[in-house]
Each structure stands twice: as structure tokens, then as C-alpha cells.
Amino acid sequence: MEAPGPRPAPALGGPGPLGEFLPPPECPVFEPSWEEFADPFAFIHKIRPIAEQTGICKVRPPPDWQPPFACDVDKLHFTPRIQRLNELEAQTRVKLNFLDQIAKYWELQGSTLKIPHVERKILDLFQLNKLVAEEGGFAVVCKDRKWTKIATKMGFAPGKAVGSHIRGHYERILNPYNLFLSGDSLRMVPTELVEKEFWRLVSTIEEDVTVEYGADIASKEFGSGFPVRDGKVKLSPEEEEYLDSGWNLNNMPVMEQSVLAHITADICGMKLPWLYVGMCFSSFCWHIEDHWSYSINYLHWGEPKTWYGVPGYAAEQLETVMKRLAPELFISQPDLLHQLVTIMNPNTLMTHEVPVYRTNQCAGEFVITFPRAYHSGFNQGFNFAEAVNFCTVDWLPLGRQCVEHYRLLHRYCVFSHDEMICKMASKADVLDVVVASTVQKDMAIMIEDEKALRETVRKLGVIDSERMDFELLPDDERQCVKCKTTCFMSAISCSCKPGLLVCLHHVKELCSCPSYKYKLRYRYTLDDLYPMMNALKLRAESYNEWALNVNEALEAKINKKKSLVSFKALIEESEMKKFPDNDLLRHLRLVTQDAEKCASVAQQLLNGKRQTRYRSGGGKSHNQLTVNELRQFVSQLHALPCVLSQTPLLKDLLNRVEDFQQHSQKLLSEEMPSAAELQDLLDVSFEFDVELPQLAEMRVRLEQAHWLEEVQQACLDPSSLTLDDMRRLIDLGVGLAPYSAVEKAMARLQELLTVSEHWDDKARSLLKARPRHSLNSLATVVKEIEEIPAYLPNGAALKDSVQRARDWLQDVEALQAGGRVPVLDTLIELVTRGRSIPVHLNSLPRLESLVAEVHVWKECAANTFLTENSSYSLLEVLCPRCDIGLLGLKRKQRKLKEPLPSGKKRSPRVESLSDLERALTESRETASAMATLGEARFREMEALQSLRQANEGKLLSPVQDVEMKVCLCQKAPAAPMIQCELCRDAFHTGCVAVPSIAQSPRIWLCPHCRRSEKPPLEKILPLLASLQRIRVRLPEGDALRYMIERTVNWQHRARQLLSSGNLQPTQERTGSGLLCGRRQAAAGQAPETSKLSQPPASTSFSLPGAWDGRTSYLHSPFSAGRSCIPLHGLSPEVSELLMEAQLLQVSLPEIQELYQMLLAKPSPAQQADRSSPVRPSSEKSDGCRGKRDGVSGLESKLKRRLEREGLSSERWDRVAKTRTPKKKRIKLSHRKDTNSFKLERARGHELVPSADAQSLPADASCSEHEDSGDEDAVCPAVSCLQPEGDEVDWVQCDGSCNRWFHQVCVGVCPETAEEEDYVCACCAAPGAPGRS
User: Fold this and answer.
1) Where is the composition biased (Polar residues) (predicted)?
2) Which of 18, 529, 608, 1170 is most buried, judging by how many CB atoms fall within 10 Å of its CB?
């Protein structure tokens, strides 16, 4: 500890021979680890043999040990000498306070503040400090060269280098102070120079330097620098660990290992730390600690503290030297060294062979002084330190020796040594055994000394005695009046001097009274002391017994070894009984720790806890043992002083490891071991947490074996050996260690890959070649590829393409050899397949051309039939309707009423257009397709008949139906309305387009019933002829064929009806009041006709004027609309004929003639003609004349009708002109026509030649045509060439149709036309009427 005097006396002795101070050697410096630093007393006991040889030592804690500074520095006040401040030009309180702080700082540094002058003015330090701070600080001002600017701001004239002067003053006076405030280091002068300057100043008498030292400040009053419980400084959770640290100087004196803990009094400086605030050159003189105890000093912060120490064994030598060099001081003051006012140059002591050691204690470091070690030193600058005393058990003999030394010097004791020993003896059962043993020895000395002294006193005549509790008296009331020793065991008192005591050594010094008047005051009798000493002895002997057991356990033979549990029990006993931490206990702990480590390693080896990364293939754990180490480890287990349960198991593990090594060596010696055997052996190795050198080679061989087996397995099935597989295997093989079998397999694999890539690339190029290669050339390449034992993707694709090409060609040949007309879908499928095959196919262009012709034909047919922006498909228009009314949507299953022709099977039931299209597509022959369409026609007729009756009944019902819905809008009827001729439903004229009044009356069809343009038959027949030339079957073609057959059939029936004369106008059968009485309440006035124009959905032929009169039959809501011919006014045959006439998507003159006949008012002559039968013409010679007569009769009838209808003779001439070409009719003989249509029959109806275009205004047939202008005549040839010129040659068919053709269109020259008869293709067809 430090103990400065108010003013050190002049140094005894001087510097070295040359007058310069020579630093003594350095003392030991210790840097404990965290484990060593954990127990301070154990660490001090460990370093004591070294450190007590130098008297002092330095300890650097671990770097992370940084206790917080917890002292309240605001309560520390100093009054240094400073110059009077009224000499300064400071007018404000702020400046005075600032200058006061500067002055105090430099006073603590051992200097006096002197205010400098600049330009004959006192420098304003406050303003200078403020301006520099505003500019960013000293470093920034220097860097930016702003000192001239600051000088200008302070009022100095520029240009006189004032800035450099100001900088010098700031750097010398203010910058150190600012660095101190910021916590930065202020060390600017080396410690060696400061040390030399200190001893120079101490040794000279010419310079008088006065310093002050704030020493021996009680921590109890101002607070410790270390954190304490219930302190004023709030600690963070991380800082609370320093509260209980053994190196906290508040804890060290009272720890269990410190004997001072048994002193109840709080002794400042010994049990309570003292604080030291040092300044530059403040020093502490040569001294030793009270009672020759240990001391420990910690520098919290500040500049270093320089220490000098002399070991305890040289204490008397130092005292002798100092007494010899200054005997007069010791004569007047025998305890001069205890007054801490004497300092002597270490060089002087070293000159007299006194061992002196030094050290510089920096902030955060400890300095420990050992018993009776003289030490001194000084501070290098402003700092803050804290120190305290402590005593270990080894100090006890020195402590008793110190008390004897104090008695000789008549020096006061800080505490009673005997009192401390007795107090420790009273707690013998809880004392550390080493402490108990040491105390027992010290107590034995104390008892012997006390026994001798009491015997001496008794011989002096002191017989009176009394027990006295000395510990209850203050120390100053129980001191010997002679030697100042604190009495505890005994003392002598006399009644003449109450309150005074003397120790038994100075009985005669009490008073002049006789001895028998003295009274012996004692604390314990001798009988009280012996049991206390025996208790200490028993405590020490329990340790001896324990030590004997430990030695027996450590030295036991193999057969008598104890278990590890017994060793742990001995350690636990030592801890419970607090036995000393001596070499025996440390050895026991070390042996037990080794045994525990061995047991842990053995258990780990037995458990086989190898980490996954080592299991998977490589590396060695840093904890793994080699086999040799395992063998040595097993031997070590047998050599342990204790027995481990894992030892026999580990021996078995060693045997298994050695067996593994033998098997592995045998397996690795084989040329090519199997992967399974290698893997099994590796799996066995996973049970050993041991480094096995064979594992690396085994893993290499295992990888090779796996690779070779994988290559072999891949080559077994060439169809699955892909190029990627070969590349992957080669990549894997490249990474394998060199081996002959691997290299051979790699060479074969590489060669196979090269060949495979070559042929695969060739196959790819052939597949992508344009133009495509022939089948034969590709087949040759495929044959080559098939020889390669690998799967080539492009080769497989090429092989597949060749096979597909062969299959395709077979399908084409089968189609050509089948004798049937191919179906379009089959052709499209073949073309699609053929295009996707990368092989040159000779037949593909022909098929593509054929499909293209079919598509052109479909487009032409669509243009012929479909209206603009039609929502119907061509097939939907050509086929019978499947969507009529309720029967077309939700019709119950029932048998057809019409019987099928004999020998034909019933077609699949057709419910929708898709069903019909599927049935047509799947039909293998035209006959089955015709049958399917015939069934669809029957359903169409049946459904439409029901719908017409329902709609007609709805409109004619006498009962008013409030909920009746009509029209597209499905709302109630409202005038004006119009009725559809086909479905007989009523429509609001505002919802549909109706013909205007300006147009002649027409048959009106609703949007649902109007499905096509209804071209004339002459435009349709060429479509069928061209399709027959194409020779491809498609649903649309079958539908067209059936539609023509149906049309011809209808024409035949219509002509029979017209020629029968049984057709009567509807006026003869119906009355004007037919629809009377219905909805009369709803009748209203409306415009006579709608102003809407004729819609495209209207049938495009005119009707006689009688049609307009039919509106008189209609009542509301048809008052301003149009109605249809009533169904109940017609016979079923006529009704069905009219209904089917509107279903036909063809324009026929018979349709117009039927309606004209039904609506015309008959004359008596017509009635007579109608009543007489038509004479049939069966013979060819009379047939021509009969036809001519028929033509004349029809022409007369048509002319009379036109006259009756008000047509002019010009109109009749124009009509007659258009009926017959101008050229003379030429009779041609019958001949065969190779291009004739072969129309098939369906449902038993024969194909009948078609009528002329319905654009004719009359009812005459084609056989009644007369000469007409070439421009107005129409040639019904399938492929009309439309010849032009002044004269065009015509020829008339001599068959049944009597139609006129361009000679050039049917291939007849004028000469042939004159000499032979001509029969058209239609009449030449089998079964055609009039064909012979």
C-alpha cells in the first residue's frame, strides 16, 4: 500500500556514480488465464515462491476483466496552490470558473498555471478555447490552417504571425486539458524521463518543488472505486458480476482464505480499502505494511504509478543501511521507517547490496506486496488508485514475529494477534484444515509463552487474578503503558492506577506498589486453551486421515484399485471439510479428471459417435484416435489408479478393430472386390470412432466398384443406355482414382459414345433434311444404327419415322386397293400423318391435292348455299333439321312409324347434328349414309308436323290464353304480326324483318326456318358431278346427294299432283270467317302494311294478287300482318308436300306453281281440265308430240292466267321468249354418257329430273321450253362453259326432262345433233323416268 507523507524528507543517499538515476530491475509480471484468475488466493499462493523473492509483483487481469469505476468523484475535493486569478483579464463568472478548472488541472500535474502574453496583452484562454472548439477542434484547425483566422477573431492584427504563437500556447496549455476531459491519454513524456526527473528533484536542495497527494482516503466515507452492493452507481447486468469478484478489493480481505476475516473490527486500510488520488511526483516513502501483511493495489485510471520493492528477507538489511547512512534520524526517531516520511534513492540501496526491484503500474493493473517487503514509489501524473491489506495462512508466523518486533519498538498494534488466534480456534470445526493446522501450531507457541509468563508473574508474587473480556474494551484502553502492545491473553493492573494495564513482559513498569497488590487479568485459563488447541488438532488430523486414504487410493495395486466413484467421493469430502488445496488434492483432482476424460472418450468410442460428414466419405475428426492410439489408450486405462467400467468393453472394441483391419487388408488385396463386400466392411467401420487408414483406400475402391458395376449394368440393356448416361458415366469415371479396370471401361465407353454421337447427329441431320430423303436410304441408315448397342434419341426417332412411313404407305395402298370411295376424314388423317413423317412419300402430294380439291368443293358449296354471315354450317343446311320444336329438343323415345325398306338395318338413333355427322362419318357405304339421312328426314317431318299443328292450334284456339308466348321475344301476341309459312308460329313485325307493301306478296319464313339461299337445282347438280369426279366421300357430299334425291322425289310427287287436276284453290275450301271470333277484343287499327323492307329470309318468288286479299281473313293480332294457308283447309298430302317444299334448300318452279294453284281463283275451263285426267305419253313417237301439246296447253293456261292477273302481252312475250332457245330443237339419238351422275336411291323413292329454275313466272316444266334469247337461257350442264357470240348452238334432251343444253357444254357437234338423239346424264341414269 501507499503511505505518503505531507512532505518527503530529503533523500538519503544520491544517484549513481555519474549522478544519473539508474532504474532497478523489473519485478515479475503475471498474466493469469481466466481459470487461474477465478481464485485470487490460489493464484497468489501459486506465484508466492517467485514473487516473494522480489517483494513486489504486477498482475495483469485478462483483457475482458474491466470493472466499472464506481467512486463518487464529486465528493473528492482538492485545494492546490494556484496563482491569484485577479491578475487575469477575466470579467465574467464563466471565465473565472474555466480558468479555475485549468489551474486545478495543472496543479494536479505538478505545475503552476501562468497566463501567457501575446502582443503585450494577456491571452484570453477562455475565448481561445471557445473559438477552436467552434472551428472543429485542435486537429481540424491545424489541418485547415485556421490559426490566423482565430487570431483575427480575437482582435489581433493580421500579418504578424500571431496565429503560430496562439497555436503554441493552445497546444501547451489547453490541449492537454481537453484531452484529459475527453478521456484520451495525456502521456506525452516517457516514464523513464519522469522517473529520472523525480529522483533528481528529490536529491537536490536547490529546487523546492511542493506537491500534494490525496492518500489514505477512506472508501467507507467516499465510496470504493469497485462496485459494492447498495452502492450509488447503477450497474448493468453485465457489470453485476464484479460485485462478488475475489479481485474486488472490498471482498479480498474478508474472503474465507484471508485470516483477517476473523477480525470483527473494520480496520481502515486493512479490511476496508483506501483511495489514493495522485498527481505528478506525489510519492509514498519506504515502508512495510502493518503487521507485515500483504497488500494489493489497483490503479483504476490515470497516469502510471512507479513502484520500488525490496523482498522481505532483505528488510533488516535495508533498515541497517538506512541507519548507517542517517544514524542521527534513527536516534531521535527509532520507528522512523514506520512514519513514512523517509525516502532513499534505490540506487543508494543497490550500492549497499540491498536488492531493489521496480515496475510501472498502468491503469487496470494490480501490484501485490508480500509480507515485510519494503516498498516505495511515486505517481507519474494524475491518477486514481485503491489498496487494501490481506493475510493468508502462511502469514501467521510472521504476524506473531511482527508483534514481538512492535513491542521492541514500542509501536502500537492495529489489532491483537492473540485475539485473532483464539477466535479462529473457537471455530475449529469450520476452519480450513491447513489454517487449522497452522493456527494449532501458532496457538501452541502462544500457550507455551503465556504459561511461562504467568509462571514468572506468580513467582513475582502476583497471586490475585480475575477473568476479563479484553475484546470488549477499546484498543486504546487495553494497551500496555510501556510497549503499546494490545493486551488480550492477560495483563497486570494495580488499584493505585485504575485504567492502566501492562503486559506480562513489563510488570515492573506498572507502578511502585509491591507485587502482591497487583492483579492478574486473564481472558482464558490454561485449561480453557488446551481443548481449543485439541479441537484444531482434531480438525487437522481429519485431514491427515483423508490424505492417507488418498495416498492409498493413488498407490493401490491392480487387484485393489478403487473405482472412479471412490475418487470422486474423496474429492467431495475434501470440499465438504474444506481441506487445503495442496499438491495432494490437486494430484487427486488431476488423476480423477484424467480418469473422467478417459471414461468419456471410452464411452464415445463404444457408442461409435462418428459424425455424418465423416461417415459419408472423407476426413478425420480431430478427436479420432488411430488404432495405435487406441491400443495405447487401452493400456492407459489399465494404468489408471482407478478402475473404469468401460475398460473391458474398450478392450473388446480394440479386438474388433484389429479384426476389421485384417479383413480389410485381405479384401483390398483382391484384383477387383465387389462393391457389396466393400460396403459391408465400411458399414462395420461406422461402429468405430477410430481413425482407420484403410478407409480412404476402401472408399476409393468402393467408388470404382460402384462405377464399374453401373457401367456393366447400363451395357446389359442397350435400349436404355442413352448418350447422357454415357456422358454421366464418363464424367464420373474421370473423377475416379486411376485403376486398370476403370481405364479399360472408360476407353470402351468413350469409343461407344463417339460412335453413338456420330450416328445420332447423322440421324438428326437426316430428320431435318430438306428435301426429305427416300424411305430406302433412311431404312439403310436405321439398319446401321440398330447395330450400335446404345439408345440414340435421333436414331430412335429416325427408326420410328421409317416405320411410320411404311405404315402410312400400307394404309394408302389398302385405301387404293379397297375399291371404295375414300372418306374425307381418312384422307385428312393420312395427309396429317404424312406431313409429320420426315420421309419423302410419293403419294403424299396426290393426297394433299385431293384434300385441297375437297376443301375447294366445300367452299364452293358453302358459297352456293349459305347466306351472308350465316350462323349455320354447310352440313347443317344440307342435312334434315334436328332442332325443330320440342320434339327436336326433348322428344320421348318411340319407334318410327315408317317401315324401313326390306333388307336394311335400322340406323343409329340421331338426336342432334353432331350425332348425324358422326353417323355419316362412320358409315362405310353410301347406302347406309342415305338410310341415316332418311331417318333424319322422317324425324324432321314428324317434328315439324307436330310443331306446325301446335302453333296453328295455339293461334286458332277459341279459348283466350293469357300466358301464350309467341315470336322471338317470347311475349304475348300484339298487332301487327306475321306468320311463318313453315313452322306456323306468329312473330311481331317489330321483332323480325317483313316484306314491304311495295314488293309483291311472297312466302315468308321466319329466321329459324330460313336457313340458306335456296339455289336452283341447276347450280347444285354441278357440285355433285364435281364431287363424283373427285371420288371422295364426306358428310356434306352424302347430305348433298340425299338432298338432290329428296328434291327430285319431291318434284316427282309435285308434278303428279299438279298433273292430276285434284289441286283446288283454298278459297273453295275455306270460308272468310275461319279465324273469326278469336281475340276480337284485342283488335286494333294498324297501318295496312309494314314499312320494313323485304328481309333476306323471305322466299324470293311472287304470288298472285289474290294473296293480298287473304288479309281479309285475318283478325287481330294479324290485322295488319300476314297469315299462311290454313292447315285444316288442305289435304294431308298437299300439306306435307307444301311443308317439305319449304324444307328443301332448293328453289323449284313447282313450289311456286303449287302456291299459285292453291291461291288462284279457278275458271270453269280450268275446273274442266282439272277434272279430266292427263293422257300419259309412253311411246317415243307420240311422246314428242304429246309433250308439244302439253306445252301448248300449259302455255295457253299460263297466258290466260297472266291476262286474268292483268299482265300485258309484252310481259307474256318476254316470258315466252325466255322459255326456249332460238335454235331449232335437234333430236339426238340415245347414247351413253360416261360423266353421268349415279344418284343412289334412298327410302324407296326414285330420282326424278329436276325442274327449271324457280325464277320463271309460270308453272311450265322444262319439257315445255320454247325458243328464247341466248342471254336469258340457262344451260343445266354440270360444267357450263357459258359460250358467247352472236349464235350459240343448243340441243334438247330426248329423254324425259326435255331440257336444252349448249352443244359445246355436253360435247355434241352440230352434225351429230342433227343425225342422232341426245339423252342428258340425268335421264340416262338407271331408274330415271322415261329411260328405256
Assistant:
1) 1087-1101
2) 529
- Say how many Å lie between the first and final Cα of the chain, rounded: 156
Name residues whose C-beta falls within 8 Å of residue 1332's C-beta, 6 or more positions apart in sequence.
1180, 1230
Give the tens place of pLDDT for each residue, 90-112: 344 567 778 888 888 887 776 78
CA distances from 231 to 70, 71, 226, 489, 1239 (A): 8, 9, 10, 39, 124
**In 580-734, which residue ranges form alpha helices assigned H by DSSP?**
583-607, 612-615, 627-639, 647-668, 675-685, 694-716, 723-734
* Residues paired with 358 in a beta bridge: 26, 308
Is the separation of the CB atoms in 580 and 432 below 8 Å?
yes
Where b means 16+ CB within 10 Å and e means fewer, 294-303 reads bbbbbbbebb
Strand segments (E) across 332-463: 357-361, 366-369, 374-379, 383-390
φ, ψ (nearest 5 deg) of residue 841: -115, 120
| 1106 CB-near residues (< 8 Å, 6+ apart) | 1067, 1159, 1160, 1161
- CB neighbour class for 687 (10 Å; exposed up to 12, middle 13-18, buried from 19): middle
Task: Give me the DSSP letters along 1078-1094.
Answer: SSGGG-----SS--PPP
Least confident of 101-115, 584-598, 1255-1269: 1255-1269
Distance CA 516, CA 518 (A): 5
Query: What confidence category does residue 1092 fall into, taking pLDDT thresholds of 50, 70 and 90?
Result: very low
Do residues 299 and 305 lie in contact, with contact meaning Cβ atoms separated by under 8 Å? Answer: yes
How far is residue 778's CA from residue 838's CA, in Å, rounded to a whole number? 10
Residue with cell string 470404382: 704
Tell me the pLDDT tens digit for each residue of 353-370: 999 999 999 999 999 999
Query: Could you identify the residue written with the cell 467431495?
Result: 572
Please name every residue paired with 121 in a beta bridge, in sequence order, or none if there are none. Answer: 118
Closest of 1070, 1054, 1028 to residue 1259, by C-alpha: 1054
Residue given cell 516513502 in the structure block:
285
d(CA 248, CA 226): 6
> What are the DSSP calls for 1219-1269, one per residue?
TS-SSPP--------TT---PPPBTTBPP------TTSSS---GGG-----
pLDDT digits (tens, 9 = 90+) for 29-71: 999 999 999 999 989 999 999 999 999 999 999 999 999 888 8
Joined together, the cell numbers standing for residue 139 give: 486537429
Q: Which of 79, 86, 84 is nearest to 108 (CA)?
A: 79
Report helix, strand or coil for 343: coil
pLDDT for 1183 equals 37
Name the nearest CA neighbour of 656 among 631, 678, 679. 631
1159/1106 Cα distance (integer angstroms): 6
Question: Is 1162 or 421 the better-scoring residue by pLDDT?
Answer: 421
CA atoms within 13 A on the CB side of 1189: 9
Instruction: Match 488431476 to its residue by C-alpha cell.
Output: 590
Measuring CA to CA, which residue among 297, 281, 298 is closest to residue 289? Answer: 297
Number of residues written out for the chain: 1332
Residues facing residue 977 across a β-bridge? 988
d(CA 78, CA 99): 16
For residue 522, the SS3 value is strand
Point out which residues pair with 117 in neighbouring strands: 122
Q: How many CB atoms lie within 10 A of CB 1118?
A: 25
Cα separation values, 1013 from 883, 1001, 1017, 1148, Å: 19, 19, 12, 13
3-state secondary structure of 1214: helix
- Which helix (H) or strand (E) element contains residue 310? strand 305-310
pTM exceeds 0.70: no
Whether the bond between 1117 and the residue before it is cis, its omega within 30 degrees of 0, is: yes
